[in-house]
Amino acid sequence: MKAELNATAKPLSSGRNPSRGAPAIKKPFPDVTRSRLHRGSRSPILCLLTLLVLWTAPLLFAQGTISSGEALPGTISPAGDIDTWTFSATAGEEIIVSLGRLTDTGGGFIPRIRVFSGPTLIAADTAAPTAARVIFTADQTGTYTILVDDGNINTPDGTGTYQLFLFVGAATFTVPVGDNGGALTNGGNHPGHITVADLDIWSFTANTGDSVVLGLGEFNENDFLPGIRLYAPDGTLVAADGGTVAARVTYTAAQTGTYLVVVLDANINTPDGTADYQLHLAKIPGSFIVPAGDEGGTLLNGSHRTGTITLGDSDLWTFTASVGSSFTVSLGRLSDTSGGFLPEIRLYRPDGSLLVRDAGVSSAKVVINSADQSGTYTVVVVDGNINTPDGTGTYQLSLAGVFASPPRADFNHDGLPDWVLTNPLTHQLAVWYLNDGTFLGGALLPTLPAGWTLIDADQFGGSGTSSDLLLFNSSTGATAVWYFNGASFVAGALGPKVPAGWTVLLSQDFNSDGKPDLLLYQASTHKTAVWFLNGTVFTGGAFSPTIPAGWAVAGAADFNSDSKPDLLLWTPSGRSTAIWYLNGTSFLAGAGGPTLPAGGWRPAIIDDVNRDGKPDFVLWNPSTHQTAIWHLNNSTIINGVFGPSTPANWWLFAPK
C-alpha cells in the first residue's frame, strides 16, 4: 500500500465512539454559529432579556476575564442565572470555547455557550447534555463576550456547576496547575489526560520549510475520539485530524515562529469523551531525543535496527550522507499487534523537506541513486494507515549504501568541493564555488598575516560543520585555525607548535574520530608523523611512513574505499605519481598512479570532485594558470575535463 499522507487540514470525527473495526465518519468542526434548541423556541421577551443582559452584564454580572489555556469554574444559580466572561482576540485567529458540566444540582442543567462580538452573536452551542463547544474565526480585533447559562429554552431553570475552557489561536497560553500542555520536545512522548470538554494546548517552534509529524494515541478512553488541531504562528488552523483510537497530522511549516497544538475530544455533537493520551512530535531538521524505552537515533551503514510502533507513535533515525551518495533504506514488519500495522518510511533531506516515502502491507523500501544534499538525513517510521493510523507492531530498519565523503572545503554548503586560491603578492585568499569543472561563483576570504601560509581547509569543528582554514608559520612553528561560517571569518585559535625542522603538510582524519589531524614532515630525514587533534588541541602522535628521496606528498584521500585516508605522492622534478595505502599511520601497500602531463602540471587538489565516492585529481599549471580535472577509480583515470583558469598572480592552493 502506497499513499501520501495528507498535509492539509482534515476534518475531525463525529458521533459517539464507533466500533474499533470501522473508522469514524469524518465531519468538519463547524466554522459558523451552531445551536441546539430544547423544549421549543425561546420567546421574544426572553430574547430581549438576553440582549439586555449582554449589554449590562459587564457591569452587573461579570465573572471576569478568561485567557487562552485557562480552565475556569463557574456556577449557574439561582435559576435563570447568566455568567459573563470576556477575552481578547485578533482578527483572523481561530477561537475554541468549550464548556463542560461538572454538577447538575437542579436535575435538568444543560449548559449553553454563546459568544458575542459586541451585540452580534458569533457562535453558540448547547450541551447534549454534558459538554458544548464552539469553534470560529475572530472577525475583528477586540474584546469578545461569552455568556454561560442553562440551555433549556422555555424553562431555563437548570442549575449546576461548570468548567469553561478557552483557546485563542496566536495568544500566549496558560497551563493550569495539574493540567497537561506546554512546550513539546522533538522526539518526545508527551502524556496527558482529557476531561469533559477539556482543551490541552502544546507548543513548538519551527522554521519555514521544516517538516512536522504529530501523532496522537489514546488509552483508557470513555467515548473519546482523539483529535489534533495544529495552528500557525498567526493563529490560523493549518492541519487537523481525528480518529477512532489515533490521529496524525503532517505539515510543512509555511511560517517561522511558535506553533500551537490543541488536543481535544473529536466528537462533534457531544465533545464529552475522556481519555489518557500520548502526543508525539517529529520535527525535521533538528536534534531530537529518544525517550527511555523507545527506539531511534543513529542509523549506521550496514546496520539493522529494531523498534516498536505504539498508537500514534513515530520513531526518528538519522544518518549522514553527502551529495552523490547512493543508499537504500528498508523497513520490514516483524509483528502486527493491532491486526493492521502497515510499516511506513518517510525520508527527509537535511533541509527538512520530504524526499520520498513508502508504505506496504509488510515492508517498505526507498532507494536513492544519488543524494542531492549533504548533511543529516532523517528517517521517520510510522504506521502507514492514512485515515486511521492506529496500527501497532514491531519492525526492523536497515541502511545500506555507498557514501561519498563530505567535501572538507565546502564553504557554500552545497555538498560540492570548493577551491581555495591565494595571491602570493598580496596574501589575499579567495574561494571558488564549482560543480565538477564548472565555475559557479566566488568570494574573497581574509588576507593572510605576514609570515603565515595557508596549509589546508578542513572541518575543525567536526565532520559536517563549516569548512575552516589551517595556517602555519614556518619561522615560529606555530599553527592556527581560522573558523568560518560560509565565507565569513568567525574566529581564530592557535594550535600546537611544531618542533624545529618539521613542517605541516596537510590535515586529514587519520584515526577515524571525525576530527582532522595534522601530517608533519621533516625534510632532513624525509620522516612523517601524525599529530592527533581535538579541534586545535593536541591529543597524541605517531610516526608514519618515511617518504622516498625525490618524492613529495601531494595530498591525502581514501583511494581504496576502506574509509581510511591514503597518501598521494608525486615527483616535483618529474611527472610520476604513486598511492600509498594506509591503515591509520601504518603503510599497507603502494600502487603507481597516472603520469602527469608534460609542461609543468602539478596536483593541486585531491577530492571527490564528481561526487561518485572516489577521489579525483585537480591539476594546475603555474605557467598557463590552466586547471584540469582527472576523474579516477582508485589509481586509474576514467576521464578528464578542463576547469576554469586562475587569474594572473593567483595560485590554486586548495585542500589536499
Order the strands across the largest sheet as they lie in space. 3-5-10-7-8
Please give the share of residues in helix.
Answer: under 10%
Radius of gyration: 33 Å
Net shape: elongated
> Major beta sheet, specifics?
5 strands, mixed
Q: Runs with pLDDT <50, length 5+? A: 1-62
| Total of helices | 1
Count of extended strands = 49
| Overall pLDDT confidence | 89
* Intertermini distance: 48 Å
Helix- and strand-based class? mainly beta
- Strand percentage, roughly? over 45%
Give a summary of the structure in a few sentences.
With 656 residues, this protein is mainly β.
Keywords:
single chain; 656 residues; mainly beta; 5-stranded mixed beta sheet; 1 helix; 49 strands; 3% helix; elongated
Descriptive notes:
With 656 residues, the chain is mainly β. Helix content is 3%, strand content 50%. The chain contains 1 helix and 49 strands. It has a 5-stranded mixed sheet with strand order 3-5-10-7-8. A 5-stranded mixed sheet has the order 12-14-19-16-17, with no helix packed on it. β37 (502-508) and β38 (517-522) form a beta hairpin. The two termini are 48 Å apart. Mean pLDDT is 89; it is low at 1-62.
